[in-house]
Amino acid sequence: MCALLVSTMPPKVAKAPQRSAGAKAALTRLIRSYGPETPARLKLIDAFLLFLFVTGVAQFVYCVLLSDYPFNAFVAGFAATVGQFVLAMSLRIQTDPKQRSSAGDKTPERAFAEFLFASVVLHYFVVSFLG
């Protein structure tokens, strides 16, 4: 009876290559459309976001692998990196011409002024946390 059940089951087919081919095509399309369709101002913000991401990962890896002494310095630095990333992402969303409807009636200059003010406030709290 078991041999009969085993022989009637359909063979398993791997579908992973189809998914990776779709992901590869999507990534290729993203890279090709990013260059000509993205304004230079947004590319600059994206480069800053990449820098903040790499800095945050480096701080976290350093804390986990080497040392977390002094811990308040790690927390302040990591909070500054994450906070600045959030503020920069907000600036990118508000200055992207394709997403103007989500920003309301704000001009890019006003969004940048708010970004600067929020960055100063964020770093004031970070320095205050350090003592």
Automatic annotation (TrEMBL):
<dbReference type="GO" id="GO:0006487">
    <property type="term" value="P:protein N-linked glycosylation"/>
</dbReference>
<keyword id="KW-0256">Endoplasmic reticulum</keyword>
<keyword id="KW-0812">Transmembrane</keyword>
<feature type="transmembrane region" description="Helical">
    <location>
        <begin position="73"/>
        <end position="91"/>
    </location>
</feature>
<dbReference type="Pfam" id="PF02109">
    <property type="entry name" value="DAD"/>
</dbReference>
<dbReference type="GO" id="GO:0008250">
    <property type="term" value="C:oligosaccharyltransferase complex"/>
</dbReference>
<comment type="similarity">
    <text>Belongs to the DAD/OST2 family.</text>
</comment>
<keyword id="KW-1133">Transmembrane helix</keyword>
<comment type="pathway">
    <text>Protein modification; protein glycosylation.</text>
</comment>
<feature type="transmembrane region" description="Helical">
    <location>
        <begin position="111"/>
        <end position="130"/>
    </location>
</feature>
<keyword id="KW-0472">Membrane</keyword>
<protein>
    <recommendedName>
        <fullName>Dolichyl-diphosphooligosaccharide--protein glycosyltransferase subunit OST2</fullName>
    </recommendedName>
</protein>
<comment type="subunit">
    <text>Component of the oligosaccharyltransferase (OST) complex.</text>
</comment>
<comment type="function">
    <text>Subunit of the oligosaccharyl transferase (OST) complex that catalyzes the initial transfer of a defined glycan (Glc(3)Man(9)GlcNAc(2) in eukaryotes) from the lipid carrier dolichol-pyrophosphate to an asparagine residue within an Asn-X-Ser/Thr consensus motif in nascent polypeptide chains, the first step in protein N-glycosylation. N-glycosylation occurs cotranslationally and the complex associates with the Sec61 complex at the channel-forming translocon complex that mediates protein translocation across the endoplasmic reticulum (ER). All subunits are required for a maximal enzyme activity.</text>
</comment>
<dbReference type="InterPro" id="IPR003038">
    <property type="entry name" value="DAD/Ost2"/>
</dbReference>
<feature type="transmembrane region" description="Helical">
    <location>
        <begin position="47"/>
        <end position="67"/>
    </location>
</feature>
